[in-house]
């Protein structure tokens, strides 16, 4: 690993977000871990950080270089698992935090994985399909020394798709000399992908919202829902909310913010975004300002964009009953405290958006066995795992008198650190 100033930034007391948020969340759970807190530093230090140069020949013949990352936060409970993000704001700090949240998420759901994450600092909209393929294949070759079906399994994330995963799988397979379908998840169905995977994260957000609503007396039918982020997670979640009787009254993506108090036609919105790439220009709702968006009255608020969106300032003005985190790390610890003091329930990312990695687990299992389940079976298994995890986390929160986030971290950290303790240190 090349040691750069950015590499060292996570050791700086003035660490920037979002790694600082993750560390604060770990610090907050430490008093609840009993003797396992002896191992707490394990969670504050990524196991492995790989920084790679990704050079390609562009369509015009010029040479371009991109910086890529793969971070394995913890492997005590199994191989690394986590997405690959293509976004202009990707940084080592961000990827480290995302890998840490994957460790917690997988353990909280009881999945046999550790946490990992990857990314390239790039705006995929500025490159041709051929250039994106060359970038993906070169990146895969560079990180090939640390990934594998039983080592670290990437998946899609912001800016990547099932096509990205197909290129990654093929590149890895060519390099090892045989087809290794289990090296990634979120693949096309024809290449060993799982039915239900594309909708899994958004479906999981809905399941988590429904379970929270049942306990808080906030029915989905007739509820007002506001969604920030209208990609694969926010779009699917919005559609399933609407199918179950909710009114999605406002949406926001990177280019537009729209609202309709009577409810937005989500199927029409999905068609519009598929055709035009954003919410901008959609005629079924009125444009509103970003300031208005963060002060709309709702029953469920779903941040499903990037991390750090729910700041203390926004938390003070948020008018909702339940926040369901579709994105990773959207709420800062300080904002979390404000929402708690205002009696706004937060269903944390490590629970709410775990549907994607859960069905990725199903895909991985199916690839190993070469036996594939129906979509109804996938959705039923997803429902069972998420409801069981929600019940356990809710019970812990009530028993320990802590937030749902802290309860999820208690369960997850106990599992990870118990595995670390039982395995011991070698040499």
Provide an overview of this structure.
Helix 2 crosses helix 15 and helix 13 crosses helix 14 (375-400). The protein folds into two domains: 5-180, 3-Layer(aba) Sandwich (Rossmann fold), CATH 3.40.50.10860; 198-352, NAD(P)-binding Rossmann-like Domain (Rossmann fold, 3-Layer(aba) Sandwich), CATH 3.40.50. The chain has helices at residues 5-8, 19-29, 92-109, 129-143, 162-176, 197-216, 232-243, 266-276, 290-293, 312-317, 333-341, 349-352, 355-369, 375-400, 404-423, and strands at 48-57, 63-74, 80-87, 114-121, 152-156, 224-228, 247-252, 257-259, 286-287, 300-303, 322-324, 345-347. The strands form two sheets. A seven-stranded mixed beta sheet has the order 9-8-7-6-10-11-12. It has a five-stranded mixed beta sheet with strand order 1-2-4-3-5. A hairpin with a 4-residue loop joins strand 7 (247-252) and strand 8. It contains 15 helices and twelve strands. With 427 residues, it is α/β, with parallel strands linked by helices. The longest helix has 26 residues, at 375-400. Mean pLDDT is 93; it is low at 1-16. It starts with a helix and ends with a helix.
Brief descriptors of the model:
single chain; 427 residues; alpha/beta; Rossmann fold; 2 domains; seven-stranded mixed β-sheet; five-stranded mixed β-sheet; 15 helices; 12 strands; 44% helix; 16% strand
């Amino acid at each position: 690993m090349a040691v750069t100033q950015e590499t060292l930034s996570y050791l700086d007391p003035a660490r920037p977000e979002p790694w600082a948020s993750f560390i604060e969340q770990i610090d907050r759970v430490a008093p609840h871990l009993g003797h396992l807190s002896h191992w707490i530093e394990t969670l504050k230090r990524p196991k492995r950080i790989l920084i790679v140069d990704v050079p390609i020949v562009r369509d015009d013949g010029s040479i371009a270089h991109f910086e890529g990352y793969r971070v394995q936060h913890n492997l005590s409970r199994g191989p690394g698992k986590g997405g690959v993000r293509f976004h202009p704001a990707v940084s080592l700090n961000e990827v480290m935090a995302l890998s840490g949240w994957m460790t917690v998420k997988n353990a909280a759901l009881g999945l046999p994985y550790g946490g990992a994450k990857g990314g390239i600092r790039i705006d995929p909209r500025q490159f041709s399909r051929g250039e994106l393929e060359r970038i993906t294949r070169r990146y895969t070759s560079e990180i090939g020394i640390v990934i594998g079906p039983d080592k670290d399994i990437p998946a899609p994330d912001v800016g990547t798709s099932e096509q990205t995963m197909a290129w990654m799988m093929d590149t890895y397979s060519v390099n090892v000399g045989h087809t290794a379908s289990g090296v990634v998840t979120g693949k096309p169905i024809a290449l060993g992908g799982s039915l239900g995977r594309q909708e899994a994260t958004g479906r999981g957000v809905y399941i988590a919202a429904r379970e929270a609503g049942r306990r808080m007396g906030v029915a989905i039918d007739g509820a007002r829902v506001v969604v920030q982020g209208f990609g694969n997670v926010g779009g699917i979640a919005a559609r399933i909310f609407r199918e179950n009787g909710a009114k999605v009254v406002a949406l926001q993506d990177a280019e537009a913010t729209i609202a309709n108090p009577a409810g937005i036609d989500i199927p029409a919105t999905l068609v519009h975004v598929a055709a035009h790439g954003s919410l901008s220009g959609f005629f079924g709702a009125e444009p509103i300002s970003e300031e208005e968006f963060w002060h709309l009255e709702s029953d469920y608020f779903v941040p499903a964009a990037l991390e750090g969106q729910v700041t203390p300032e926004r938390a003070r003005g948020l008018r909702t009953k339940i926040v369901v985190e579709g994105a990773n790390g959207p709420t800062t610890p300080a904002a979390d405290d404000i929402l708690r003091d205002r009696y706004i329930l937060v269903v944390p990312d490590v629970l709410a958006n775990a549907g994607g990695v859960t069905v990725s687990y199903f895909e991985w299992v199916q690839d190993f066995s070469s036996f594939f389940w129906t979509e109804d079976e996938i959705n039923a298994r997803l429902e069972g795992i998420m409801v069981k995890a929600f019940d356990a986390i809710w019970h812990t929160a009530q028993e320990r008198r802590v937030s749902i986030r802290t309860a999820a971290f208690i369960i997850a950290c106990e599992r990870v650190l118990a595995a670390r303790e039982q395995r011991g240190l070698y040499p």
